Amino acid sequence: MSASLLRRGLELLEAPGRGKAPPGLQGGRDGPRAAGAARRRKRAPEPGSNKATVKGRVVKSAIEEYHKKKAVNHLRANLQYMLKGRFVANKAITEQVLAQNRGRKSKDQPPKKAAKKKPEGTVFTEEDFRKFEREYFGRP
């Protein structure tokens, strides 16, 4: 272990109220890089001082922040906007646009609509049925 790592470990383990060791006990650094190394070395944060504070900072209420960031329901405004415009496009034009956007694959094609068969009407009228009934059952 290097001496610097050992010193840092001792700084971390010392009691919070003691502070640093007296200058006579510390190893002297008289080399040309001693001042730069001291600047680079970080001092351990003391419990009483908080450097992250700003002058004139206003403490924000957590409730206000929650209400500010809470999701807003835009359904009513969107419905009014959508219902305001009553323009309906021509059906032929919409079919043409849909046909252009449709692919050539079978999965892209809409299902074929079967032509509705008209119910076949009877050839006989109600009067023909009555006439047949009279003849077959013998009722006058």
UniProtKB/TrEMBL annotation:
Residues 1-55, 99-122 are annotated as: Disordered. Keywords: Nucleus. It is found in: Nucleus, Nucleolus. One of its GO terms (molecular function) is enzyme binding. It comes from the Eukaryota. Pfam families: AROS. One of its GO terms (cellular component) is nucleolus. The keyword tRNA processing does not apply. The keyword Aminoacyl-tRNA synthetase does not apply. PANTHER family: ACTIVE REGULATOR OF SIRT1. Belongs to the AROS family. This is Active regulator of SIRT1. It comes from Balaeniceps rex. The gene is Rps19bp1.
